[in-house]
């Protein structure tokens, strides 16, 4: 037992000094910044966040929000081009974190945290010229992804979600307003509480399964091929469905590329 | 600083970074339980950084004004017209919030005879309809 601190320190030292190729992290940096740059350009050009602030009567001046959005777009553009990616990530983290102080969306918290982790990660260059870098920030990104799915699935284990009430509300509202095609059988399935309850249980199991797959990827390198495949299938299923019926596109796309590029070796 | 000293310093930095990153998230998650969330028994509430997506109780309404109201340069026949339909659709979590927004629209850009219609989707598969005029 006396050797435990020494062993832990050694394990930690080995983990921190482990190196990986940054090829797929560069792919992730490009995909992540493209997705959120598109989001922010549309949001900014259509004043969507300003409308949100107006309708919610939030006590923040619009010029503060506009300034933060302009900064955010500039940092995301720099990140996309790979121009001082660490500094750009940190700038994007600060801008989004300030913005999420006023607009408390989970998507914004998610972006801030991922941008913060990217700011300690060497993603400079292009995928055709990768280099060896410290591997621990990539592992932290995978751990962060696993934690999001783990806590989200645990919190969904509540009566109003599992009995289908929550999805009934959200999906029937979207059915009423979205200009998207839904087959008749699917519409009638979504109009029932039991149908939504089945989907809710499936969501909890899939999110929980995805968290386990990612934890397995981290802890048992032997099973990486299988756990990556499982994680990819689950992430695509969860977020593909959410895009189709729950009107959530950008967060889902970001999570899919996160799983796809960060678990690829 | 010696090579070993530098290595120790790097370990401390990484550990501090991980703690700064995960302690607030772990704390938010624990707060859910302290605040009354019990799996399979009670619902969680909105706590930042606890990753409570789709897990808190919500209600949603389709809100329309007839005739359309005018807010600045915008003409809105419903809340749906206020934002982009995909991703940015403006929503609130409670029927009461929709009533407040309906009245806000009335006060700022409606007429006394403007009719408000609310079709609300509520918990337990309930759908309600409300109709009232601006006041």
Give an overview of the whole structure:
The complex is a heterodimer of chains A (about 260) and B (about 140). With about 260 residues, chain A is mainly α. Chain A contains 13 helices and 2 strands, in the order αβαααααβααααααα. Chain A folds into 2 domains: about 20-135, no CATH class; about 135-265, no CATH class. Helix content of chain A is about 75%, strand content about 0%. In chain A, helix 12 (about 225-245) packs antiparallel against helix 13 (about 250-260). Chain A is globular and about 55 Å long. Chain B is an alpha+beta fold. Chain B has 2 helices and 4 strands, in the order αββαββ. A 4-stranded antiparallel β-sheet of chain B has the order 2-1-3-4, covered by helices on one side. The longest helix of chain B is centred in the N-terminal third of the chain and has 32 residues, at about 5-35. In chain B, about 20% of the residues are buried. The model of chain B has no long low-confidence stretch (mean pLDDT about 95). At the A-B interface, helix 1, helix 2, helix 3, helix 6 and helix 7 of A face helix 1, strand 1 and strand 3 of B.
What distinguishing features does this structure have?
heterodimer; A: 265 residues; mainly alpha; 2 domains; two-stranded antiparallel sheet; 77% helix; B: 135 residues; alpha+beta; elongated
Query: How much beta of chain A, percentage-wise?
Result: under 5%
Structural class of chain A: mainly alpha
C-alpha Rg of chain A, in Å? 20 Å
Biggest interface reads: A-B, 59 and 53 residues
What is the general shape of chain A?
globular
Radius of gyration of chain B: 24 Å
How are the strands of the biggest sheet of chain A laid out side by side?
1-2
Largest sheet of chain A: 2 strands, antiparallel
| Structure summary, number of beta strands of chain B | 4
Helix tally of chain A equals 13
Report mean pLDDT of chain B, rounded to a whole number: 93
The low-confidence parts of chain A are none
């Amino acid at each position: 037992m006396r050797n435990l601190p020494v062993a832990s320190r050694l394990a930690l030292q080995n983990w921190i000094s482990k190196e990986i190729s940054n090829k797929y992290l560069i792919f992730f940096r490009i995909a992540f910044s493209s997705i959120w740059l598109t989001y922010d350009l549309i949001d900014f050009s259509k004043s969507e966040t300003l409308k949100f602030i107006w309708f919610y009567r939030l006590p923040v001046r619009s010029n503060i929000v506009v300034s933060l959005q302009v900064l955010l777009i500039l940092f995301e553009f720099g990140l996309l081009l790979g121009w001082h990616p660490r500094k750009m990530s940190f700038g994007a983290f600060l801008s989004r974190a300030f913005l999420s102080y006023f607009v408390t969306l989970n998507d914004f918290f998610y972006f801030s945290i991922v941008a913060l982790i990217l700011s300690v990660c060497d993603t400079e260059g292009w995928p055709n010229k990768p280099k060896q870098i410290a591997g621990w920030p990539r592992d932290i990104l995978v751990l962060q992804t696993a934690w999001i799915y783990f806590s989200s699935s645990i919190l969904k284990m509540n009566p109003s979600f599992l009995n289908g009430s929550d999805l009934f509300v959200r999906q029937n509202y979207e059915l009423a307003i979205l200009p998207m095609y839904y087959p008749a059988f699917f519409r009638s399935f979504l109009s029932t509480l039991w149908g939504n309850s089945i989907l809710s249980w499936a969501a909890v199991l899939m999110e929980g399964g995805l968290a386990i797959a990612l934890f397995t990827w981290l802890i048992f390198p032997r099973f990486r091929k299988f756990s990556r495949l499982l994680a990819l299938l689950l992430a695509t299923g969860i977020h593909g469905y959410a895009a189709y019926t729950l009107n959530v596109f950008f967060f889902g796309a970001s999570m899919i590329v996160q799983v796809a590029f960060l678990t690829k070796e | 600083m010696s090579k070993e000293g530098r290595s120790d310093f790097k370990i401390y930095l990484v550990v501090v970074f991980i703690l700064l990153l995960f302690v607030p998230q772990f704390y938010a998650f624990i707060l859910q339980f302290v605040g009354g969330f019990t799996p399979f028994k009670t619902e969680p509430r909105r706590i930042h950084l606890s990753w409570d997506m789709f897990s808190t109780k919500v209600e949603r309404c389709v809100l329309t004004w007839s005739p359309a109201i005018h807010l600045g340069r915008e003409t809105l026949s419903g809340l749906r017209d206020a934002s982009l339909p995909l991703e940015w659709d403006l929503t609130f979590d409670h029927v009461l919030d929709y009533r407040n927004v309906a009245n806000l629209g009335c006060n700022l850009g409606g007429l006394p005879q403007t009719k408000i219609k609310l079709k609300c989707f509520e918990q337990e598969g309930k759908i309600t309809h409300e109709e009232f005029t601006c006041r």
